[in-house]
Amino acid sequence: MGRRLFACFGRGASSDTKQTHAHEINVTADVSAEEQRRGGAILVELFSSQGCKTSPEAEMLVSRLGRGDFELEVPVVVLAYHVDYWDYMGWKDPYGSSQWTVRQKAYVEALNLDTMFTPQLVIQGRAQCQGNDQDSLFSAIANAPRFPSPTFQATFQRPTSESLQVSLTGALRTKIDHQGANIMVALYESGLVTDCPAGENKGRVLSNDYVVRKLEKLCTVKDISAKKNVSGNVTFPLWEGFNSSKCGIAVFVQNSSHHIFGSQNFPLPENI
Fold it and tell me: Most buried in the list 5, 64, 166, 252, measured by CB within 10 Å?
């Protein structure tokens, strides 16, 4: 990969805590009947930064998208990754991570782009647009290939006060060939509000939803039928102030070309 440029585009511009006793609460969720009736969801991923002046508009767009404000014919699963390459501008994004920058870089290469920029939307791993371009987003969603949502059941446990275990079992409902695919599990948080005292958004109160806090691989599968059951566990370390009522789990299937082959969404139970 050659030299890459970073850009921040607007519309029209191209403490340690001590371990306590284990929590034994188990809660099981299943994919909604409504989602299954309407067909598989489209995964929409936002790459954003609190250090980018034009990202707040994109954050509002994906928040509304995730809430269902636009009443699209196609169900969506929304995830927002905060990159870290704007931290030098005077404000360090509290949700920024080099891991998400690496994920965006992989999409830049897969989509043959010359520039990493924020805000950027990636739809089903196959198309991208500027993060505040609502018309392009809706067009990309409408034209994205659709796959049946997996039929995972999710069981949540708290082995310790500082961790969350997610157990998944179900069928992918999409055949996976010999090239294989990864089943990824994202833990996200919504309802985040940040006073921004520095940087390009100095003086603003920033609202963020569907912010990916953790991302883990459940397993790698290959040469399996659409009906074959898959099972596995992931354990997420939790952050100070974790509130399950603000969080959810997204599961998606992604191959080595970064294409998405199905996604599913679970809110976390409030009592976990």
Answer: 252
Tokens of 125: 């791993």
Residues 6+ apart with CB under 8 A from 113: 107, 128
Say if CB 211 and CB 80 are below 8 A apart: yes
- How buried is residue 117: exposed, middle or buried, by Cβ count under 10 Å (0-12/13-18/19+)? buried
Would you call 105 exposed, middle or buried from its count of C-beta atoms within 10 A (0-12, 13-18, 19+)?
Answer: middle
Looking up tokens 């980018």 gives 52
128: which strand partners? 122
- Cβ-proximal residues to 211 (8 Å cutoff; 6+ apart), any chain: 80, 82, 95, 188, 189, 190, 192
Strands 42-48 and 76-82: parallel
Residue type at 86? W
Residues 172-193: pLDDT tens digits? 999 999 999 999 999 999 999 9
Distance between CA atoms of residues 83 and 125, nearest Å:
17
Three-state DSSP state, 42: strand
pTM: 0.89
| Cα–Cα distance, 173 to 178 (Å, whole number) | 16
Tell me which DSSP letter residue 180 carries.
Answer: -
Q: What are phi and psi of 66, to 5 degrees?
A: -65, -30
134-143 vs 55-67: helix axis angle to the nearest 10?
40
Average pLDDT value for the chain: 90
What would the two tokens of residue 153 be? 């059941």
